[in-house]
Specification:
- The protein has helices at about 1-10, 15-25, 30-45, 55-70, 75-90, 95-105, 115-125, 135-150.
- It is mainly α.
Length: about 150
């Protein structure tokens, strides 16, 4: 993770910041706080230049991370933004995978592994295009598909 952290420390790349924040929030809440704050600032700064749906997706992720850090309480807003992102970008595998992740982790009645699997599978179909060959989210999506299938005994 030190290589990932060094990259995040020197580059503004929302996709990698999103992934790193998820990791560090789960593993070191105190160390995560400045990274989540910085991620939020970068999301806001790039709001108008992001692909459609990505602003709402990344803002949703910020709310999830802040919730996990106990810095804010916006679970419904986070889920609403994630769902809205799928409506804005229904063919974007990153957005679809992100919403699947939200559904995967959210407690019932908000979340559902069965519903998450649908979004992961749709994202995975789109990830087959060569432009996604080196996207880390593609690999994460495959991992989530396997986890959903295990939990659903499929």
């Amino acid at each position: 993770m030190t290589v990932w952290q060094a990259y995040i420390d020197t580059t503004v790349d929302l996709s990698y910041e999103y992934g790193f924040c998820g990791y560090i929030v789960a593993n070191d809440k105190e160390a995560a706080k400045p990274y989540v704050k910085r991620f939020k600032e970068h999301v806001e700064a790039q709001r108008d230049s992001l692909p459609v749906g990505h602003y709402k997706m990344y803002l949703s992720a910020v709310y999830v991370y802040e919730l996990r850090l106990k810095e804010s309480i916006h679970p419904l807003k986070a889920m609403s933004l994630a769902k809205e992102a799928t409506k804005l970008a229904p063919e974007d595998p990153i957005v679809l995978s992100y919403y699947g992740t939200c559904l995967f982790y959210a407690p019932k009645p908000f979340g559902s592994k069965k519903e998450a699997l649908k979004y992961f599978k749709r994202a995975e179909e789109i990830f087959h295009a060569s432009e996604w060959d080196y996207c880390w989210i593609r690999e994460a999506t495959l991992m989530y598909i396997r986890q959903c299938q295990e939990k659903l005994n499929l």
